[in-house]
């Protein structure tokens, strides 16, 4: 079943500071933009060019401009509600960033007020940028790695193809991590920060070494969303994404992987000799992994409130990728983070990425386990993942709705970059 992107009408507003210079720059940007057909100044509709109203438009308080973009209307009110100390290109970028909030609000799923009251996210989550907000150069990409959901392929793309310096589990290696100052190390031909961001203890060490502020990590990989949020600051926020996979398929793949992966903590000789049916009946099977890690409720019985919290985090903070749509997912990741890769300008990197998307990394070639929908084994795995199944369905809805936003963000980011030269 193909996921369809919504086609809805939008009407949103944002406020610009009262500087005439900034208003002038916005008009110049809008006039050159191919996205906008006409503008209004006060009650007067002005078509391109905007020269006849340029003088009035750049005056002080009270001017209003409305930009019509196909089915979208954005009203820019020039008021004194927001004051800036200077009127430079960053002011323009900051003003235009509000467009992202407004367009993105239309790609969000409706929020049930009861759920909103129960969501209660920790204050540290303020250090993770909301999905809908403008991406600043200081934002650090964060990858929430769900086991057996395409994460190793994503890491290979960033590490091998893009040559990013990663903070991940490689930093746990003894020769790099014991009482060492923060540094970039090389292992297996790739660059890493010498900290482990995949464990709570490692994240605490990374925080003590000011990993986020240092800027040495181009991307941070983790399983622990709550702990990692505390790593960042208001000035250096994390911007997070993930890849989701059907929880039942993931459970079967995890079983097959742990049967032979004797280097993993979850591997045992007992599990290695089990059938998938025995595994589903055992206490070794995972229980709602995604819901637990997103809600922070790692042990004990989960409740509907934990699911609400997990949904809230996913909706507000994450760019969503879906393993079944990995090419489209990567396209969105690339656009969202402003990664400039193409077959024309960077052919080697582009070819490397295409290979990874086609063949993958750490694919489980050993598991021959198959389960039949409706079987006892399927029902047992479904029961163990009942919250994750709901979360996955919700994630697919978010994926659907994020498509249009990503396109708008990419277009506006490109125009802001061209306008500011940054």
TrEMBL record:
Query: What SUPFAM superfamilies does the annotation carry?
Result: P-loop containing nucleoside triphosphate hydrolases
Specify where the region named Disordered lies, as residue ranges: 1-22, 45-69
Q: Which domain of life is it from?
A: Eukaryota
Q: Which InterPro entries match?
A: Golvesin-related_Golgi (IPR053259), P-loop_NTPase (IPR027417)
**Protein name, UniProt field:** Sulfotransferase domain-containing protein
């Amino acid at each position: 079943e193909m996921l369809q992107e919504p086609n809805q009408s939008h009407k949103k507003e944002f406020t610009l500071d009262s500087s005439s210079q900034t208003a002038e720059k916005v008009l110049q940007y809008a006039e050159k933009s191919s996205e906008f057909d006409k503008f209004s100044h006060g009650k007067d509709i002005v078509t391109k060019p905007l020269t006849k109203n340029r003088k009035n438009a750049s005056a002080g308080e009270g001017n209003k401009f409305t930009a019509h973009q196909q089915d979208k209307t954005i009203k820019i009110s020039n008021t004194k509600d927001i004051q800036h100390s200077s009127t430079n290109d960053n002011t323009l970028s900051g003003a235009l960033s509000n467009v992202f909030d407004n367009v993105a609000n239309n790609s969000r799923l409706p929020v049930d007020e009861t759920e909103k009251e129960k969501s209660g996210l920790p204050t540290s989550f303020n250090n993770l940028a909301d999905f809908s907000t403008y991406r600043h150069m200081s934002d650090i990409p964060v990858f929430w790695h769900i086991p057996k959901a395409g994460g190793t392929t994503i890491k290979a793309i960033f590490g091998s193809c893009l040559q990013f310096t990663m903070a991940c589990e490689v930093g746990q290696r003894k020769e790099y991590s014991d009482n060492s100052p923060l540094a970039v190390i090389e292992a297996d031909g790739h660059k890493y920060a010498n900290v482990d961001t995949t464990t709570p203890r490692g994240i605490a060490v990374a925080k003590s070494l000011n990993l986020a502020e240092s800027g040495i990590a181009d991307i941070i990989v983790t399983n622990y969303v709550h702990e990692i949020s505390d790593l960042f600051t208001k000035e250096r926020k994390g911007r997070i994404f993930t890849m989701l996979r059907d929880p039942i398929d993931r459970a079967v793949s995890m079983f097959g992987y742990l049967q032979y992966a004797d280097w993993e903590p979850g591997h045992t000789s007992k599990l290695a000799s089990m059938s998938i049916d025995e595994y589903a009946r055992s206490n070794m099977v995972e229980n709602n992994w995604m819901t637990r890690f997103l809600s922070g409720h790692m042990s004990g019985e989960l409740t509907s409130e934990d699911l609400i919290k997990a949904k809230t985090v996913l909706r507000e903070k994450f760019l969503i990728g879906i393993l079944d749509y990995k090419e489209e997912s990567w396209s969105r990741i690339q656009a969202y983070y402003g990664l400039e890769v193409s077959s024309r300008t960077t052919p080697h990197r582009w070819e490397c990425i295409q290979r990874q998307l086609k063949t993958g990394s750490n694919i489980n070639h050993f598991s021959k386990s198959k389960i039949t929908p409706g079987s006892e084994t399927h029902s047992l795995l479904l029961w163990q993942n009942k919250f994750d199944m709901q979360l996955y369905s919700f994630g697919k809805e978010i994926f659907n709705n994020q498509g249009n936003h990503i396109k708008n963000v990419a277009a506006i980011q490109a125009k802001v970059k061209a306008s500011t030269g940054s």
